[in-house]
Design a protein that fits this description.
Layout (H helix, E strand, L loop, with lengths): L5 H8 L32 E3 L15 E3 L17 E4 L5 E4 L18 E8 L2 E7 L11 E2 L6 E2 L11 E3 L12 E4 L6 E9 L9 E4 L9 E9 L9 E4 L4 E5 L12
Antiparallel strand pairs: 1-2, 3-4, 5-6, 7-8, 9-11, 10-11, 11-13, 12-13, 13-15, 14-15
Length: about 260
Amino acid sequence: MRLVSSLAACLALALVGACDTGRTFRKTGPIGAACDRNADCDEELFCLSARGVAIAAGGPPGGYCTRSCTNNPAICNRFGADTGCYLTPDGTSFCFRGCESGSPRDSKCLGRDDVACSLLSLDPLIRACVPMCNTNADCPGRFCNPQTGVCTDQPRVGAPDGVACDASLDGDPNFCQGLCFSVNAGPLGGVCAGSCTVGVPECGVNGICLPDPISGDGDSGACFPRCDCATPCAPPLVCEQLGPSSGRCIDPAIASQVLACG
């Protein structure tokens, strides 16, 4: 978890195929705005395209206007006091728009469904608007990686959402198709779930994106398969009741109350 002229930006991005060298920059989208090419972003910014490989071997769904900050983290402050420089899994740093978890949906991350306000650090407490695909439909011609939230050429493989996982430091970070979320139940203290944006109509395959106690629409959440009496869970998962007649599929050792079906 964790930016110069337009020519320099193009040269930097040419290696990842995300630079549109044939266009002139024009003022349109700020940090965190959707984009398809550099010309869609404000002056001094470039576009991380959904077709690129700049973040975790993938591209942000819908694109993301940003700037490289690997050699000068403070440059991000030029684009807003809440904009920060954060390291990606590939070792490259980019400027990301800041946000406040639990705040109204329209006031954060430019109201985008394919971006989520995510916790990047506890000390200091830092949240930022990061790319977040929710289904393969967010990644035309590619696949949504539920672990990283970016669009990739190959589908992510691993244990499906709802399966118990080892949330300790000794756990395998690649066991789940998504992430291993810590829970106070189950034999291993964790449960597999895809990353997602709370409030979207669907995540994964017929999944529901659930928030933590302090988050709301537009924040990052955990994706679980939906279930009800007409759509049961794939064994050995059970339907943990969340509403009067519906729930989420989860390991039976973690479920607090199983949905009763006549």
